Amino acid sequence: MFNEVKSAMQKPTRKYTYREVDESEVISALEDLFVIRPQTLRNICKHFVDELTLGLKEDGHTLKMIPSYVANRPTGKETGSYLALDLGGTNFRVCEVYLEGDSKVRLTQKKFSIPDYAKCGQSDVLFDFLAESVLAFITENNIPTESDIPLGFTFSFPVKQTAIDKGYLINWTKGFDCKDTINKDVVELLNEALARKNVKVHVSALVNDTVGTLMSHAYNDPGTMVGVILGTGTNAAYVEKVSAIPKWEGGPVESGEMIINCEWGAFDNERVVLPFNKYDQMMDEGSNNKGEQTFEKMISGLYLGEIVRQVIVELIQRRVLFGGISSPEIETPYKFETAYMSRIERDHTSDLIDTKMVLQELLNIPYPAPRDRRIVRRICELVGTRAARLAAVGVAAVVTKMNRVDSGCTVAIDGSVYEHYPHFANRMKDALHELLGMFEENVSLQLGKDGSSVGAGVIAALA
Ligand code: BGC
């Protein structure tokens, strides 16, 4: 494949190598693959609701529907100072969360980027890195450790939770792959690493970022019933009645409620309802968890840029884009970041000047003609819009499962895609309208910033 691709530095000297396919023809072929019509949205939603119900019945279904052992929602009156450690996206954060007791929170935090060797090596390397970061944070902020501080551990991967402070990793997602962590209790791994580094902190709660987002938002908005992450990965958690969870074996629950971590990223791994097309397939082939996280791969930040890159590379190979001229950068997996899509979708200049800059300066494409820039922009729009519409299907399905379409609820959403991708929230709202009609107004989508870290503090307070 690479031999056929011309080098970036080579000029398109002979015009006839460039098949100037009509722009609208190219775009309409792509629209056929990426546009999801309202009826399809409704079919996906129906199947989603069935899958949510099935996952609550027993283990082993596509949606894991994991009871979080968080059975009480906050009142907003909880107080105290807690440590939170948040692992799950591109960055890793250590925070001190101060709950002030009147629905107010203060946060001191430090971000660390996780080196690739820690993401995919031995477990101990990763957990030692986490413990060292906690130590660095405590030292820098002069946090006294005599009292063995409680720590909420936000660990945003599928774990089989057996207590509020115990959970066994089922599988990694989002590019992580430390093989020897599978089936181990991640709280024990962290406690051991903290002990190795002599850090006097103990893990009092294990939290998924979606559960954290729900709880942190509920600290000042009691109507919050759903927490969603739309970032590097995607997932949702919601408040379920214990009586509707046949597989629950944890004994009576006073509140009668349990927050369920859906692990919706795995929705339709069987690939029966989602319009997973040839470009998604190519992206999936190159991922380190092929066949898994189908829904996540069509929605979340780790993958959107890569889908766009797959489309562009194919159009270059067919000599439909850039006169057939490629570059080593565009040929490199994951080099086209989702952040570039945001930039391109934000480019409203008539000549698409910023799109040209992204293509030339970041991707080393020498001659992105105006027609090519328009096609690239449309590809971004199609992939970004499809993601938002699918995210909306997930929200509609969860709200339908909760019987909250009539009575309404707040959905707290955190994550870089929701926060920074242009038009994402509005596109979700449009799709929710197609799915729920006028009831869409009952579903209030709210940005829940820093929810995964603050939520860990709130849950540590309740634990
Ligand atoms: C993980 C979830 C997490 C989500 C968002 C997914 O890949 O499996 O546990 O909530 O990403 O971070």
From TrEMBL:
<keyword id="KW-0324">Glycolysis</keyword>
<keyword id="KW-0808">Transferase</keyword>
<dbReference type="GO" id="GO:0005739">
    <property type="term" value="C:mitochondrion"/>
</dbReference>
<dbReference type="InterPro" id="IPR022672">
    <property type="entry name" value="Hexokinase_N"/>
</dbReference>
<dbReference type="Pfam" id="PF00349">
    <property type="entry name" value="Hexokinase_1"/>
</dbReference>
<dbReference type="Pfam" id="PF03727">
    <property type="entry name" value="Hexokinase_2"/>
</dbReference>
<dbReference type="GO" id="GO:0008865">
    <property type="term" value="F:fructokinase activity"/>
</dbReference>
<comment type="similarity">
    <text>Belongs to the hexokinase family.</text>
</comment>
<dbReference type="GO" id="GO:0006006">
    <property type="term" value="P:glucose metabolic process"/>
</dbReference>
<keyword id="KW-0067">ATP-binding</keyword>
<dbReference type="GO" id="GO:0005536">
    <property type="term" value="F:D-glucose binding"/>
</dbReference>
<comment type="pathway">
    <text>Carbohydrate metabolism; hexose metabolism.</text>
</comment>
<dbReference type="InterPro" id="IPR043129">
    <property type="entry name" value="ATPase_NBD"/>
</dbReference>
<dbReference type="InterPro" id="IPR019807">
    <property type="entry name" value="Hexokinase_BS"/>
</dbReference>
<comment type="pathway">
    <text>Carbohydrate degradation; glycolysis; D-glyceraldehyde 3-phosphate and glycerone phosphate from D-glucose: step 1/4.</text>
</comment>
<keyword id="KW-0547">Nucleotide-binding</keyword>
<feature type="domain" description="Hexokinase N-terminal">
    <location>
        <begin position="28"/>
        <end position="219"/>
    </location>
</feature>
<dbReference type="InterPro" id="IPR001312">
    <property type="entry name" value="Hexokinase"/>
</dbReference>
<dbReference type="InterPro" id="IPR022673">
    <property type="entry name" value="Hexokinase_C"/>
</dbReference>
<dbReference type="GO" id="GO:0005524">
    <property type="term" value="F:ATP binding"/>
</dbReference>
<keyword id="KW-0418">Kinase</keyword>
<feature type="domain" description="Hexokinase C-terminal">
    <location>
        <begin position="226"/>
        <end position="462"/>
    </location>
</feature>
<dbReference type="GO" id="GO:0004340">
    <property type="term" value="F:glucokinase activity"/>
</dbReference>
<dbReference type="GO" id="GO:0001678">
    <property type="term" value="P:intracellular glucose homeostasis"/>
</dbReference>
<protein>
    <recommendedName>
        <fullName>Phosphotransferase</fullName>
        <ecNumber>2.7.1.-</ecNumber>
    </recommendedName>
</protein>
<dbReference type="GO" id="GO:0006096">
    <property type="term" value="P:glycolytic process"/>
</dbReference>
<dbReference type="GO" id="GO:0005829">
    <property type="term" value="C:cytosol"/>
</dbReference>
